[in-house]
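Cont'd.
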Amino acid sequence: MSLINRGFRNAFRNVIRTASITFILALSIAMSLIMLMSLKTVQAKIDEVKSSIGNTIVVSPAGIRGFEGGGELLTEIEVSKISALLNISKLSKILNARLTTDDTNLKSAIEAGSFGRRTRINGGGQTQVNADGDFTPPIMLTGTSDLSITSNLNVSQLEITQGEKFDAGSDQNVALLGKTIAEKNSLVVDSTFKAFGEDIKVAGIFEGGNTFANGSVLMPLKALQRLSDQVDQVSSLTVQTNSIDTLASVQTAIKAQLGDKADVISQQENAEEALQPLQNIKTISLYSLFGALVAGSIIIFLTMLMIVRERRREIGVLKAIGASNLKIVNQFVVESMVLTLMSSVVGMILGGIFNNPVLNVLAKNIKEPDLGSSFAGPGLGRAIVRIGSGLVPGVQDTLRNIQAAVGFDLILYGLLAAILIAVVGSALPAFLISKVRPAEVMRSE
Amino acid sequence: MLKVENLSKEFQSAGQKVVAVNQVSFEVPTGVFSVIIGKSGSGKSTLLALLGALDKPTSGSIKVDNEDIVKMGDKKLIQYRRKKIGFVFQNYNLIPNLSAVDNVILPMEFTGVSRSRRREKAAKLLAQVGITEDKFNRKPSRLSGGEQQRVAIARALANQPRLVLADEPTGNLDSATGEVIIKLLKHLAYTKDTTIIAVTHDDGIAREAKQIFHLQDGSLV
Ligand SMILES: Nc1ncnc2c1ncn2[C@@H]1O[C@H](COP(=O)(O)OP(=O)(O)O)[C@@H](O)[C@H]1O
Ligand SMILES: [Mg+2]
């Protein structure tokens, strides 16, 4: 009968007590595990969002709403002030325009549908009526000064399927056509179409990754400014800083330059706002994790305290017949280890059972952070969301990845928690053991 | 074998000084069965606790085989308790969830007796104190008082101690059983070369002893 053996047997001396303690402790361990997993889930999501934050700043005239216009456009003078700022690595200007049947011979690739018709009846504005008295939505045309920045082009991607990109710095009447508008108008590379009374040559055709993008047209900024009579005007500006660390300072500098005239928004700000609910869940999980661990430690602590007091005489006898403090303490540690390990096994099973439901509830309540929602203009916002969901796997994916890894983690953390709880819970009882005077056993009562 | 000189033990109890053992000096040779008698509260248990190194005296010396245990450090005291002393208590003090044989094995575990030897020795000791084999694996709760005290004596003898200290070993037993237990202790003293000091207030038992010490208010009279 070894020390370990005795500790083990002692753990089962009072079966009912052992069972109830195991159950309660198991609940707190299950709780710790679930909170740990929730913490990991949320942290993974936060990391993902953070890593997806670009170092870009969007500057748009105050009050402008994408293609709907409104507000005062920015001027090239203002733009040049911004481009003179430090730490800017790239700067892309765009001008949004809409082509109606008055301006172009292109047919829209997008059917108006019932929504479009309703919009028109409600006086929703600049739709165009064709010969049949029917109407088609306007064609979105974007002039850009830099095709290497696509976040402001309302595309999820910019994959040239025919021809090639134009020189965005030029003033030529060239265009890139989304694939559906090209198809609808039977246009290929080197074909021409009419816009603003001039011939525009098709430089290439692109796959934009979404219906909206594939129905739109891209042109060099200068050409569009000239054609649409908006020389020197810019509807928004996308600035890329040389690193994410300079993002905030550049943003401040731009704000200082433009004052009230423009909305200056970086993705970082947006992301932080979007991350707030995630951070809250993380904090709650963290506190709950601590709470559950502390509760577990207190349970085992009180149990061991009770057991040590109950066996005071026995401890005295062990000392009287020559057991060292260490031997007795070790025997009790073995006992508390057995209790906690048993509890962790039960806790892991409970944790395994309740982990998925809890994480699923969590995932449902974690909204996909909407990085674009507060960007100027609905068009822009939509585009960024699209880009976001293209690059970043959703919460559900994250969840799946984490659940795949849970098996091993669960066991590892469960054991760690158990050992931690057992050690913490045995510390004071051990001290009490050392204080038992062996002479006490002489007293008979 | 045992030489006690000017041994005193004071307690502080509710701010009051209690002298439980007062300037006690005596000697016991090897292999002698001696008895301490005295009224309740006269300091008998306290004296035994001091002899068995369960407590430290306030002053005085206790020499066992010419070594003063009062001067020993904690490590040596543990060794002393393990190897030199066997204790028998009034209420047996067996470990409740260990069987009779495991209770006897326990002290041998502390002295490093090999696993196979332990069981063999325990069986032999139990047989010597009159426990039959069918009771070896019984828990204390399934043994009578007399049987429990026999097991306790076997446990006290497990490491062949030089000194067996028995505090009212018959106090919880009927007189017939008590007599048997005392005979057993006395017999062991003869055959094992072990010094036995038993506390009792039974004059009948006292008559069996070679030496009688009479304690009164902590002093020998
Ligand atoms: N731990 C203690 N603290 C205070 N007083 C004690 C303690 N142990 C014993 N005493 C006192 O010492 C005296 C002797 O006690 P004890 O040795 O138990 O007597 P006996 O065994 O002869 O009945 C008693 O007055 C008792 O109250
Ligand atoms: Mg007493």
